[in-house]
Amino acid sequence: MNIKTIMVALILGLMLPNLGHSQESNFGNWLIYIGNKKIDQKWNLHHEVQYRNYNAIGDLEQLLLRTGLGRTFNEGKNNLLLGYGYILSENYIESSDDKVAVNEHRIYQQFTAKQKVGVVKLNHRYRFEQRFVEADFKMRFRYFMGIYIPLYGKEAAKNKYYLSGYNEIFLNTKSSIFDRNRTYGGLGYHISTNIRIEAGYMNQFFENSSRDQFNIITYVNF
What percent of the chain is modeled with pLDDT above 70? Predict the structure, then answer.
């Protein structure tokens, strides 16, 4: 069985058991597009769309739109970015099948740093957010560490498949300091030099609960 077959089986195996379930299911699905437009050697435009569901698809939990302008330095190893995000959340009312819509506008600043250890790539991201949630104002700090491992070592011609993982912790500036933690692991494939796709599992741990998500992520650089 080749890796393409394994990826298809992974997607179907994780999605099908959750079709038809909504609020009762703790297993959701996130469809994610992450794009990066290189303006010149120093400047880049970030843009992303995330469509998050309570189940496999069709029961919206959250729609996230994010963009930002970044500046790259240190020979491409570091990036400093200022961005804006709009988030529409559809939260279930407790003990009910009804939802309430919550709008959030978010300004954020982030710094990313890349490392390479042999063929393994590490990515560190530090993000500070100012969140305008309806009439409420909140601030939050996030630290993300990602890892990228090619499956065929140094043979560039064969490096289409890779393993990916990350851990990200969210910390509030007031009230309950710990907000959440996300841990992810997935299998990826390079469609071309500029496009890659991933499928993987993510656990999101809150202060008193946790949720599992199946993520499908597309990355585009142009």
Answer: 86
